[in-house]
Amino acid sequence: MLTRRLTMVAVLALCGIPAALAQSYPSKPIRFIVPWSAGSGTDMMARAFAQRLGEAVGQQVVVDNRGGAGALIGTEAAAKSPADGYVIYVGGSVSMVVSPAMYAKAGYDAVRDFVPVSLVSQFYNVASVHPSLPVKNVKELTALAKARPGDLLMGSAGNGSTSHLAGALFNSMSNTRMLHVPYKSGGQLVIAVVSGEAHLSFSPVSTAIGQAAAGKLRMLGVSSPKRLPNLPDLPAIAETLPGYEFGGWQGIFVPAGTPPDTVRRLNAATLKAANTPEFKDYLSREGSVLVGSTPEEFAKFLRAEIEKLVPLIKASGAKAE
Prior knowledge:
Blueprint: H1 2-24, E1 30-34, H2 41-57, E2 61-65, H3 72-79, E3 87-92, H4 93-102, E4 114-129, H5 138-147, E5 153-156, H6 162-174, E6 179-182, H7 186-195, E7 200-204, H8 205-213, E8 218-222, E9 247-255, H9 260-274, H10 277-285, E10 288-290, H11 295-316
Parallel strand pairs: 1-2, 1-3, 5-6, 5-7
Antiparallel strand pairs: 3-9, 4-7, 4-8, 4-9, 4-10
Helix pairs in contact: 2-9, 4-11
């Protein structure tokens, strides 16, 4: 009888091990893979977020930069990492949608190889022109572009960048033909438009706002569906071109196979970290909008982004450089 009781106790104890392990998560530091180099926009967002996430989970969150090849290197590394909740990844529109569409062999599948945890933020682009261009709003820009087809030089931060695709979508929806001129970086793009080498760009708000304040650029409209709270006087392009919307985004993923309980815990911690006053202030300064979502909502959003952007990328003729 005693032997039978001891056996039952042992079985019950073993049955409780998974629950106990789940309750103890996380019990060690979490590695946070960023598929861009240190100092990039995504890296700075990730570092601001990592500090708050660490506070939310009670463990250190260590940023691991794996830049290169249009985010392919870091994203593939994240996809092949252990699915134990101790590796998380910040993915965005470029790494999860654009790069896989532009490279023949990306080394990963955004839907198959990852589990979405939460969408964190969205950022938008602003149509900005050199002050010498005789337009003051989106309506006048459209009219000028139609009057001078192929004449206006629309710069971007490179093929497949958000500035390229935002402009390509504008061309398509407005029935205009502005000539795309890709530069090697966002910094080079700013120099080109400020100097007048390019007539205009659809740059991220955070890039354009400082130059506009200095009078070196004229902002015409933002690509968000409605006006941004921190730029209430800047019209949304959709006010002139109904239905126009384009934005980049950033969210948290884990490798496929990560236990559902762990995903739920990370989701709760992500939402807690993202809603801290410090992180919301950071996003506001960068012209981004806090979103937050359930894993299911984020998975649906990712599929919708793929369905929307991949045809646009193919139609634009964007190729990997």
